[in-house]
Design brief:
The chain is α+β, with helices and mostly antiparallel strands. The protein has helices spanning 12-16, 45-68, 72-76, 82-91, 96-101, 107-121, 123-141, 145-150, 284-320, 332-361, 367-391, 403-413, 420-431, and strands spanning 157-160, 189-194, 197-204, 216-223, 234-240, 246-248, 265-273, 277-279, 322-323, 326-327. Strands 1, 2, 3, 4, 5, 6, 7 and 8 form an eight-stranded mixed beta sheet that branches. A two-stranded antiparallel sheet has the order 9-10.
Length: 440
Amino acid sequence: MNQLGPVTIDAAPVTDGPLPFALWPAQPRVALGDLGAEPPLPGIVGDLQQSLHGFAQKVMRPIGIELDRLTAEQVVDRGSRLWEFRRGFAELGIDMATLASFDQTELPYVFSVLFEELGWGDSGLAISAGVAMFPHYMAAKFGNDFVARTYPESLVGCWGITEPDRGSDSIDPTRSAAHGLGKPNKPNCVARIGDGKIVINGQKSAWVSNGPIAELCILYCAAETGSGFDPARGAVVVVPLNAPGVSKGKPLEKLGQRPLPQGEIFFNDVTLDIDHLLVAPEDYVKGVYAIHSEANALMGSVFAGCGRAAYELALDYAHERKQGGVPIIRHQDVQRRLFHMARRVEISRALARRVTAFNMNNPLPALQAAMFSKTTSTQHAFEVASDALQMFGGNGLTLEYPVEKILRDARASLIEDGCNEIIAIKGGGMLADPDRLPAL
Ligand SMILES: Cc1cc2nc3c(=O)[nH]c(=O)nc-3n(C[C@H](O)[C@H](O)[C@H](O)COP(=O)(O)OP(=O)(O)OC[C@H]3O[C@@H](n4cnc5c(N)ncnc54)[C@H](O)[C@@H]3O)c2cc1C
């Protein structure tokens, strides 16, 4: 190091183009921005990122920490700050019309920046905001304008997939991850479709995100066929949760993402007009593929943000905490550990952006690519949060510091939206090229 210390050139070279080598300082050093080695964001996406970050920092982070300490019942209470978060998020004006106003080059950035920033603020609240939009978002994707005409966007949405007897199986309609000798468990939630009506009976498990507060559900059901259960023939239905015959269980107590309300939903002869059908039985496999292509990519961005939050806390703490007479960041091993944390966050973000852009611009989304992103970001978020806790030493284990919460939140993500093992089995199956395989 020279006497003046290293020269830092902030983001300028990236925007102005490469500086000729002869003009470089003797000891070049480039400070990465808040988003690491991110090239400049296009158009108004940079402004959006800034305002989302302000919201995540000032509103989400403190509310998330407060809700984490409450019981699940207290979180959903009308007096809790969960509702302040929901009002604040609504004021950001991110709705279907706004999303539709971005062009095809901006939209993938909008999505990945939006969910990364929300995930940075609080991953449980980020998931709550994401699934709240799901019924309207998916209805628009499937070309169903009945939902937009009939139900206000302000209704809190949820996504009902998991059943008491069908967990991993519920995301495997093709049974490509299932054991060859196994028989499918009976479904807990069944739709009878006919005479212009859908009649739903059964239940979803307590894992439905937003379940206790949701008003509109995008629901997976088995289709009643009269000739036994076929996992590949289901239905995806949009269900208003004030319909006669709908009831709910208690909010679920759990380890991580505690600000995210979760709970069972029960259906007793819930009868709806056929317009509520988003995906018919003959299209079920295709419908699940489409929905999970979106959901897995969303998870990739949220947990890129969650991992980044843990890394930033560790980096700050390493500058503040002194041991051996120096801030711990002076220790080479601490720098090495931070390097690997930052590297994992970079990979998660880059992959989330890339997959979202690919899937939004390709004629069909690649589900296995969205799965790369979900499994990578969640695994990295968990590892980075664990390394961050270690960086805090004993303080990391205490409730006074925010890293233990982030570790619990990240732990939940390895199971959420499908266990990472199942996702990898299914994604691996999609890498096989049937044209190059001999027929069985
Ligand atoms: C924070 C969070 C949010 C969630 N949000 C929602 C939501 O909004 N809506 C919703 O419906 N659900 C939601 N879920 C539920 C989630 O999708 C399920 O928990 C998940 O799919 C796993 O199902 P399970 O818990 O029943 O585990 P199981 O399926 O019982 O799995 C138990 C274990 O067996 C393994 N296993 C199972 N099948 C196989 C196989 N074929 N091969 C190898 N190993 C296997 C699994 O990997 C796992 O380790 C959420 C979960 C969490 C944690």
